Amino acid sequence: MKLVALIISLVSAGSVLQEKLVGGNTGFNCNPSLYIYNVTKFVTSPWPPVKNEWVSLGMNGTMTQNVSLKGLGIYVQLNGANLYQETIPEDGNYNAGQYYALNFKAYFPSIIPNGKYQVDTKLINTAGNPLNCWAVTFTMA
After folding, report:
1. Most CB contacts within 10 A, which of 23, 51, 76, 136?
2. Phi/psi of residue 7, nearest 5 degrees
């Protein structure tokens, strides 16, 4: 259904930063066995997200192995059921120990259903494997 495509529009702008940003994290590691990209900071603003507004998300961390990126996977669940997924192209080669930051935006239109959302974000390498899993959960009312 085309309505699902309207639920979340994502725009990415990846960049490598030289220093860590200061502030608190939102979310949690949703799969500790995925540690090739070690997330040290994840910020969502505004927090919690609200309908009819763009939300900025920033993920910062360090590569623990040499990797070649293919994309950022976004997986959205509503009340525990898979709702939407998208892969945003990202590329570049990164060395073990290299700091990497990714900033993107999501829009939650007023027509999205109320309920409990979980949004998982996973960097994907060129072999199609996830390097990490970071999730935020929130309720839309």
Report:
1. 136
2. -60, -50
